[in-house]
Amino acid sequence: MGRPALAGRPFLRHLVSVAPETTLQTLARADRAGGLPRLGGMARPNGVVIVSERFWAFATTSGELHEGTLSASRRRSARIPLVRGLMQLAASLRPLARGGGVAGRGERAFLLIALVAPLFLLSRLPSSFELPVALLLGVLLVAWLMRGRTLRLHGAEHRAIGAAETGLLVRTWEGAARPSRFASRCGTNFAALAFPVTAVFDRLWPIAAVPAISGAFVAVLSLGATMELWKAVQHPSGLLRGLLLPGLALQRLTTREPSIDETRIALRAAASVLRRELDV
Predict the structure, then answer these.
(1) Nearest to 216 by CA among 128, 115, 136
(2) For residue 6, is it within any domain?
(3) 41 φ, ψ to 5°?
(4) Between the chain's N and C termini, which has fewer beta carbons within 10 Å?
(5) What whole-number distance in Å separates Cα of residue 55 and Cα of residue 91?
(6) For residue range 108-136, what is the model confidence (pLDDT) as tens digits?
(7) Is 123 inside a domain boundary?
(8) Which domain holds residue 78?
(9) Could you give the CA distance from residue 58 to residue 270 in angstroms, rounded to a whole number?
(10) How far apart are CA 5 and CA 3, in angstroms?
């Protein structure tokens, strides 16, 4: 979430083998380095994805480690308000949505249908039903995304990223430190902002001649506006940090306290990304 261009095919995925002692050495190196790139992540039922602006890694509960790269965009549109937010949102979903990523073909198809179908379904409902149905569909989608061990691995993802940001990677691997399982940049916080922003845009949007197209446009516009607000909330001044409180409260539902083994799954993915970032 400009980035330098990457050589080679974007999003190329490799299955690699890394010994635990090598992972620990990388974590120690990252702790010493300081000034690490900002990391993001995604919890899956069978593992944790960690991403930087250039690299991603997926560590699974079965012990596999998949690595890949992210292509960078130098388009001028990446600087346009609202448009840049949509581009950043799309980039954050690449590990899940792209072929060669962390989801199978059937799962990607289901996700696409789940995201697109409501735009046309809601346009056919009475206006008084649109918001309640949209909230229900959103809750069902989140429940599907958070199935299985995802809740605990979601907490592990936050803990690993927090450890990177505080220089506590090795201590967290050893279990001597336990960074918070709650995170200010979590997608749950974004969703908590997106619902009210979408409701406001839906009420104020003046054009409803073609409901399906109008509804889709309002949804896209709302997501772009939410991303701009999201970036403002992350500003170091902290003036808008209060807007994070609903999302942080929701994280009590979307995360669970991870075990040390689950935390190490996330740390393995973080070490893979940080190793390549430090070698650049």
Answers:
(1) 115
(2) no
(3) -170, 180
(4) C
(5) 12
(6) 766 666 666 666 666 666 666 766 776 67
(7) yes
(8) 13-279
(9) 9
(10) 6
